[in-house]
């Protein structure tokens, strides 16, 4: 008697989320009616399955829906489509039709959510709404989410991380701090094996470009800002960059991941570079100092200090050598010591590369954790125990170097009515 061997693969949403195939080998006589019936059913089912899961032929294959096709979205799309990865763009959310895309293109997010069969939602829209609505809906629908939206992550940190845990899916935002630098993922790995003492860094490329231009090319603040805007480094409204708000958001995310806490933007005092003058810069150069806008956080006696402020470094410091739009993120751990990460903090391809890395990590990691950390303890920032010397120049007065002040005291001095000068901490 002749027998046919028939290999069956279990399919469906549950299998696709697990990224495992369950196989069964059956043997039936060649003239069996059972054979014919089963084959017909199998072929019909597989046609349906394959039409919904385009090219999902290897373990770990996942479909991605991309929300937004601006600078970051387009960069991510180009990086993904030019590499043979087990990831597929199945849908793009865009305001207008896009030529040359071999996938669903629509302006209706819920059409994507309900029809595109996406495993991962990549949010590259920016802003708070409707990005917040879409990400929440995606997490509730048990879709993994990857975003570069630092504003959104800071504003809704507790809600979004809770939704990812409740629905058993991953939420990743490595590109939200550091652009192309794998800062948040590296920080999370360090925090999982060692106690983080401090995190700090140049986290905003626009402010660094301005300070670098003032230092190396002798430009005044207005000219350096105008040059940054001309080159596309600074927005028409540069407030978030030069006042330190962008740096603060990245610092909040870094602090939360480093210490397993939840702090808010409002917890972190912020002093930017908008009041710096050419006279300030000459003083720094005459004393062998370089000024950089720094976000820093540190544990002090069981509490966490955190602030954004200009800081003065000696010429040999790594931060002093970061030129133009570069970023530099550093951590110090109890046993590993110091580690620094240097690279492009923005741009289509650097940022898109971290978005892609997050997607690949989700696709390849069985049992990937919901977020970078499993701890979300609400914490208060206490800057009363963090002391350092400061350069302070009040308007119309000569600059002074203070005795050690707490971060709390220094920022309180600069918040008084009528203070139109400049302040910078001195790195010791």
Explain what this protein looks like in three dimensions:
- The chain is an alpha/beta fold.
- The chain has 3 domains: 3-52, no CATH class; 62-172, Rossmann fold; 199-344 and 376-426, Dihydrodipicolinate Reductase, domain 2.
- Helix content is 36%, strand content 25%.
- The chain has helices at residues 13-18, 33-52, 71-81, 109-115, 131-140, 150-155, 157-166, 183-193, 205-216, 221-230, 239-242, 245-259, 278-286, 348-364, 407-414, and strands at 3-9, 23-29, 62-67, 87-93, 104-106, 120-123, 144-147, 171-172, 196-202, 261-262, 289-300, 303-314, 326-333, 337-344, 377-378, 387-388, 390-393, 400-401, 405-406, 422-426.
- It has an 8-stranded mixed β-sheet, with helices on both faces.
- β3, α3 (71-81) and β4 form a beta-alpha-beta unit.
- α9 crosses α10 (221-230).
- The longest helix is centred in the first third of the chain and has 20 residues, at 33-52.
- It is globular, with a radius of gyration of 26 Å.
- The termini are far apart.
């Amino acid at each position: 008697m002749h027998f046919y061997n028939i290999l069956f693969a279990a399919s469906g949403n549950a299998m696709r989320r697990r990224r495992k195939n369950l196989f069964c080998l059956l043997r039936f006589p060649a003239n069996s009616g059972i054979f014919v019936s089963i084959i017909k059913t199998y072929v019909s089912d597989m046609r349906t399955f394959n039409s919904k899961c385009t090219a999902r032929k290897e373990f770990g294959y996942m479909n991605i829906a991309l929300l937004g096709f601006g600078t970051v979205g387009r960069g991510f799309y180009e990086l993904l489509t030019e590499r043979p990865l087990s990831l597929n763009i199945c849908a793009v959310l865009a305001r207008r039709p896009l030529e040359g895309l071999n996938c669903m293109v629509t302006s209706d997010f819920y059409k994507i959510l309900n029809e595109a069969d996406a495993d991962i939602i990549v949010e590259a829209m920016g802003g708070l709404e409707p990005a917040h609505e879409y990400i929440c809906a995606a997490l509730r629908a048990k879709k993994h989410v990857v975003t570069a939206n630092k504003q959104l992550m800071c504003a809704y940190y507790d809600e979004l991380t809770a939704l990812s845990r409740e629905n058993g899916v991953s939420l990743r935002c490595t590109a939200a701090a550091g652009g192309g630098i794998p800062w948040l993922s590296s920080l999370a790995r360090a925090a999982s094996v060692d106690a983080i003492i401090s995190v700090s860094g140049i986290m905003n490329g626009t402010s660094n470009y301005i300070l670098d231009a003032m230092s190396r090319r002798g430009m005044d603040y207005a000219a350096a800002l105008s040059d940054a805007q001309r080159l596309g480094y600074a927005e028409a409204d540069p407030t978030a960059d030069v006042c330190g708000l962008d740096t603060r958001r990245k610092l909040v995310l870094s602090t939360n991941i480093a210490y397993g806490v939840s702090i808010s933007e409002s917890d972190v005092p912020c002093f930017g570079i908008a009041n710096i003058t050419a006279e300030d810069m000459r003083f720094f150069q005459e004393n062998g100092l370089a000024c950089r806008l720094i976000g820093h956080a540190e544990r002090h006696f069981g509490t966490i200090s955190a602030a954004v402020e200009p800081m003065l470094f000696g010429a040999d410091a790594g931060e002093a050598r970061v030129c133009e739009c570069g970023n530099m993120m550093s951590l110090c751990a109890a046993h590993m010591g110091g580690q620094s990460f240097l690279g492009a903090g923005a741009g289509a391809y650097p940022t898109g590369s971290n978005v892609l890395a997050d997607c690949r990590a989700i696709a390849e990691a069985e049992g990937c954790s919901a977020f970078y950390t499993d701890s979300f303890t609400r914490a208060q920032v206490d800057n009363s125990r963090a002391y350092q010397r400061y350069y302070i120049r009040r308007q119309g007065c000569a600059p002074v170097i203070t005795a050690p002040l707490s971060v709390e005291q220094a920022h309180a001095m600069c918040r008084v009515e009528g203070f139109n000068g400049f302040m910078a901490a001195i790195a010791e």
